[in-house]
Amino acid sequence: MPTIAMPELQFGEVFANIDLFLEACGLTLALWAVALAAGLSGGLLVGLARLSPRRWIAWPARGYVELFRNTPVLVQLIWFYYALPVLSGIQLPAFAAAALALSLNASAYCAEIYRGGIQSVAAGQWEAGRALGMGRLRLLRRIILPLAVRRMVPAFTNRAVELAKNTSVASIITVHELMYTARLFSSQNYIPMETFTVVAMIYFLLIYPFTLASYALERRFAAGRA
Amino acid sequence: MGYVWDFFAVARNADILLAGLGQTMLLSVCGIAVGVAIGGVLAAMRLSGRRTLSWPALAFTEFYRNTPPLVHFFWFFYGLPMAFGLTLPPFAAALAALGVQSAAFFAEVFRGGILSVETGQWEAGRALGMGRARLMRRIILPQAARRMAAPFVERSFELVKTTTLAAALAFHETIYSAMVIVTQTYRPLEVYTVVAGLFFVVLFSASQLAEWLEARGRRAGAR
Amino acid sequence: MTVAGDVVLQVEDLHKSFGSTEVLKGIDLSVRRGERIAILGSSGSGKSTLLRCLNVLEMPTRGRLILDGEAVGKPAAGGATRYREAELNRLRARVGMVFQQFNLFPHMTALENVMEGPLSVLGRSRAEARRTAQRHLERVGLGGKADAHPARLSGGQQQRVAIARALAMDPEVLLFDEPTSSLDPELVGEVLGVINDLSEDGRTMLLVTHELGFAYHFATRILFLHEGRILEDGPPEQVLKSPREERTRRFLDRFTAFRF
Ligand SMILES: Nc1ncnc2c1ncn2[C@@H]1O[C@H](COP(=O)(O)OP(=O)(O)OP(=O)(O)O)[C@@H](O)[C@H]1O
Ligand SMILES: [Mg+2]
Asked: Is C178 helix (H, G, I), strand (E, B) or coil?
């Protein structure tokens, strides 16, 4: 039997360089914010397109959503990393590819949340609005979306969490965010166990508030429905 | 614009890609098995009603649900073995990371399904004098299983997509195979377009199949 | 062993609290074999809680429960009682319960619902369980619905299956908690009819109900519960027509439409 040495952990060295990791959080947060904002706005458009009675609008929207939901986010990131220079003809930083891929990814998922939320509003609300003589868009803005949003918020919070985790994949296409910094640091200092443990904790601290918020919102929603 | 697509470069290396896809499937199936096993234990701990069991399980699931899987892939491949002066093959490290991470999600699927069964069902079973284990097996689980099916399938699809991160550990799954082909052909756009297409075909048809089965199950359940 | 008239179920000084609110404030009750007891009382008076303590679906906070002369559970500190899981399961197998919401197992047919207890608790053979289940379904007038799932049955039919399910255990005591309260008015009669037919078995039954007319004809004894205490206990004639307490009179006055 091989003897297994008890590890001597050197967390001190990681904490001595903690500013390195905290700086890298900046890019992680930037990716997260860009993709989330794009997802919330683009997702609404795509979600509405999916609900359109016109096939030539609804079907491409469905194709887009299915495409992004049924392929790994890593493939999406790598694809845009290579495709962007070819399609645009200019060399763009990896960050642009990552931001674009994550934004499109988030939009696809958010579209489904919008669609589900809007469909969950009872048909009676649509009828009541139409009976008042409201047009489709006004009805949507003044009646349906405000009703639907309450049910969608927990799902969006959940999506924000998934998105935050996805930003780490950008490290594979050399975006110098938190995960990339961690890999670099651990290979330079030969303390991967300590590095990845601390980095996991940093991610947890960034992400967990969103999860707690979604719990609180779900509870409130459940109480409001009763 | 003058980009000339050349998919023949990919076609010539199709065998590499398909072998990679096979490894992706293998890792997925093993990951689901490990995740379901650990997830089942975690769910049982959380539902045990004992704090000494439920709190550690809660901490575990919350930690793994709220941290990126990629960190865990690296932790299991580089971190854990190096701390103990060992090496783990990429497959084992990827499987460990995937299993542990997905276990946290599967645990929530199981727990949610069980909690969704009305308390009246528990009471009716207890009123007949059924013990906890038998009640669980005969009354609660059959009903919970139906409600778990859809989220279980969804989690499994997420897991399949997550297996691609094993490429970062040089495990020869689909993406890593794609990287190999790219270094030989320098046709990244074509290669990754095909890879995306492969995943899409596999996952989309599987999800359509799952939806169809689910609808059939629902109809059968509403007899 | 099964002499009509001996005490089958007894509770002494039964208390039950949820958190800081005491719902049952000391119940003493002695049930003789073959008695049919209707329990009345306004909403929140603790009727369901009392019934659920009798088969220990709720753990009493204090007091003793004696079934067939045997005390259930072991005394613990502070007047409380400790119950063992296996002991409770044995007790519940002998004390049947019919719920307001039926609580049928939706993934099983009517027949399988009725078979479940004998099969998995009493350890009967499948063939025997099937035979007795079929017999009990016929008894409640649902012999033809054996293969239907609960979702395909009306509320009244579901409740009759639930009664058959409880009967299949051949319980010494059968508890009913407002068995008709969640039924459409036109379905109430068929369920009460089935319960009334059970009288001829001489089985001990306790029934929480708001159907005063039915209670009058069906019960051999009526309890009136008020704020966690038994305020009235006697034959239907006496309790319903000349109650001792002002509270009871006020409660009965609210049922103006009720005729004997
Ligand atoms: N599990 C519980 N947790 C907290 N309070 C409870 C619980 N069950 C019952 N109670 C409270 O105990 C009191 C008595 O409830 P119980 O259900 O026994 O009344 P009841 O006489 O059956 O009324 P009803 O006619 O409405 O069924 C009520 O105030 C109720 O709110
Ligand atoms: Mg009640």
From this structure: coil
